[in-house]
Amino acid sequence: SDAGHRLTRRGSAGKASTVSVFQRGAQIGERRWEIPYLSPDDAGWRAHRAMLDAHLPFRNFDLSRRGTDGTERHISVSGDPVFDERGVFIGYRGVGTDVTERKRADDALRQLSSALEQSPLSIVITDVEGRIEYVNPYFEQASGYRSDEVLGCNPRVLSSGKTPRETYRELWATVTAGRIWRGEFWNKGKSGEMFLERATISPILDESGKLTHFVAVKDDITELRQAERMRDSLEAQLRQDLTLQQLVGALGDTGIVANTAAEAMLRIQSEERQVAELRIAPEQFADQVKIDV
Questions:
Q1: What is the C-alpha separation between 1 and 31, in angstroms, rounded?
Q2: Vertex 156: Cα angle to 120 and 162 (nearest 5)
Q3: Which end of the chain is more exposed for a tag (fewer CB within 10 A), N or C?
Q4: 183, 221 in Cβ contact below 8 A?
Q5: Helix (H, G, I), strand (E, B), or coil: what is residue 192?
Q6: Counting Cβ atoms within 10 Å, is residue 59 exposed (0-12), middle (13-18) or buried (19+)?
Q7: Is 147 helix (H, G, I), strand (E, B) or coil?
Q8: Which helix (H) or strand (E) is 205 found in, with range?
Q9: What's the rounded Cα separation, in Å, for the pair 236 and 227?
Q10: Rounded to 5 degrees, what are φ and ψ at 245?
Q11: 86 DSSP β-pair partners
């Protein structure tokens, strides 16, 4: 650019010019801030222009405009002031780089980080040896451990002793083989309180397919299991009550039920008297049945 910051020449060092990605890029004789842009805001442009007017070098000045595909495109520009042999400022020589993909990757990473930090589930990331490298805030809330207390530790720090060893062997064999494991653990928090967690543990592979980390996403289901047990108990009680009602319905109304019970009692009493008579007078019984004793 010249001393008035108007573009005087465009070169691409053998690459396609970054201006080609914009619907409307700066043309020869124009200043960058005279072209419609999406960022920076006015304050950002004023700060940048102040550096230019002071003839200072600048690095990684980011601007964005609408691209030819309709999406936002980001360009990072760096420049150095140029002076003639008398030391008079004559303009800037700089280079612009399309950093759209890097920006998108950075944005995706920030979104992922925000999702991990705000997740209502415990999230633990370990290296391939099982050493903890990251825990999210909900893990701290659920376990009672601060992140600095568990970083570098094995997740067995939460072991309660109630989970069968076979569960851990199956888990390790599954994830080291590159597969996802799902199951449940009885774990123990820092306070000693037991809690049941449903976990999904996944291997993380790099671009070459090499195993680099494991990520565990865990949900505390202690209260859910308690609620399920209460539900099962209530269902069993309900089935028992329904069976009794069906019995009453089969016998009829309460009067019939009472009469039936009374008749049964009379039969029992009569049979008891007969047995008593047999015990008292066996000879009489023998006579009645024509047996000679």
A1: 8
A2: 90
A3: C
A4: no
A5: coil
A6: exposed
A7: helix
A8: strand 194-205
A9: 14
A10: -65, -40
A11: none
Q: What is the largest CA-CA distance in the chain?
A: 155
pTM, two decimals, is 0.58
3-state SS, residue 49:
helix
Distances, alpha carbon 87 to alpha carbons 31, 90, 91, in Å: 23, 9, 12
The SS3 of residue 54 is coil
144: left (phi > 0), else alpha (psi -120 to 50), else beta? left
- φ, ψ (nearest 5 deg) of residue 139: -60, -45
DSSP β-bridge partners for residue 83? 89
Question: How crowded is the C-beta side of 171, counted as CA atoms within 13 Å?
Answer: 21
Give every CB contact of residue 117 below 8 A, 6+ residues apart in sequence.
136, 137
List per-residue pLDDT tens for the chain, 293 residues long: 888 888 887 665 444 445 455 655 566 778 888 888 889 999 999 999 999 999 999 999 999 888 888 888 999 999 999 999 999 999 999 998 889 999 998 888 888 888 889 899 999 999 999 999 999 999 999 999 999 999 999 998 999 999 999 999 999 999 999 999 999 999 999 999 999 999 999 999 988 889 999 999 999 998 888 888 888 888 888 877 777 666 666 555 555 555 555 555 555 555 555 544 444 443 443 344 343 33
How far is residue 242 CA from its own chain's centroid? 42
- The residue written with tokens 């490298």 in the block is 133
Cβ count within 10 A of residue 76: 18
Residue 174: how many CB atoms within 10 A of its CB?
16
The Cα–Cα gap between 58 and 108 comes to 27
